[in-house]
Amino acid sequence: MDAAVNREDVARMRPLERKALLDEIAAMIMAGELRIGDAARILRSAVLGLDRQAFAQVVKLSERAVAKLEDDPHANPTLETLKRVFAPFGGTVTLMFPQREDTESLGEDKRQRRAAILAALAKSRRRRIRGSPER
Hints:
The chain is 61% helix and 0% strand.
């Protein structure tokens, strides 16, 4: 995978590759490497290719609720908000007590995929800070 996750790359992925991306994002959340809001931003923009306004309409939330989830590191979304945000990707809200996975033991493919996810997040954050339109 390239150094970033973008809409064009995701669109070219086969179903199993997209599933691997979604699984990796979930694993990064569980490992504390990625915030839920950051995952929502990546999925909204890279997988669906939607801006916040269009996504908010799709999931029947306010644009403000989506922005708060994505941007506020202290956001405390309701379970209903999380269900709505992750439903378009087949995601569900559950409680798990996973076994921690040692990042050093990850295969090269997983390391590259995680690096791509984090690069996409960094690019998205830079865009928001500069105030340019997000897509």
